[in-house]
Amino acid sequence: MADIKDIQDEIIEEFTGFDDWLDRYQLLIDLGNEQEPLPEEYKTDNNLIEGCQSRVWLQADVVDGKIIFRAESDALIVKGIVALLIKVYSGHTPDEILVAEPYFVEAIGLKEHLSPTRSNGLVAMIKQMRLYALAFKTKMNL
Questions:
Q1: I need a surface site. Which of 32, 40, 86, 136 has the fewest CB within 10 A?
Q2: Where do the structural domains in the chain lie, given as residue ranges?
Q3: Residue 80 to residue 84: CA distance in whole angstroms
Q4: What is the SS3 assignment for 41?
Q5: What CATH number labels 4-140?
Q6: Is the pLDDT of residue 142 over 80?
């Protein structure tokens, strides 16, 4: 699997291919729609991310020492944002996730084109993914 930096560079390349932000939003929506739906059993209050205006459920499991993230949102753009984050972080070890700065967010102009509430939600999603990584790292090192 490609490392987190390579994945972020691919995302930057994909998004900078579009000059118009409407096209970038469409790409986000498409990414969200391509994502596997989250099974109903994971749509619990425990998996809801606090700090998001729309509802976002995030499920994390460890498989062979790597964290597999799955998520869903009831908002199209947010579903695309979480799909991007999954693309970057899923399938990596807790250590890889904890040291990786999500520089693609800045590079593709995502933060400046989101409303303040969506921007806060993005930060909350990244924070939750890192918290899962920290928890799994702690558990694995016991």
A1: 40
A2: 4-140
A3: 6
A4: helix
A5: 3.90.1010.10
A6: no
Within its chain, how far is the Cα of 63 from the centroid?
A: 18
The answer to whether 110 and 82 have CB atoms below 8 angstroms apart is no
Q: Which residue has the tokens 């749509």?
A: 43
* Chain centroid to CA 11: 12
Across residues 21-37, what is the average pLDDT? 94
Q: Quote the pTM value.
A: 0.94
Catalytic residue among 49, 52, 56, 129: 52
Question: Which of 2, 26, 24, 13 has its CA nearest to residue 87?
Answer: 2
Q: Establish whether 52 is a catalytic residue.
A: yes
pLDDT of residue 115: 86
pLDDT digits (tens, 9 = 90+) for 66-92: 999 999 999 999 999 999 999 999 999
**Can you list the alpha helix ranges (DSSP code H) found in the chain?**
4-16, 21-34, 76-89, 94-99, 104-107, 116-140
Which tokens belong to 3? Answer: 């490392």
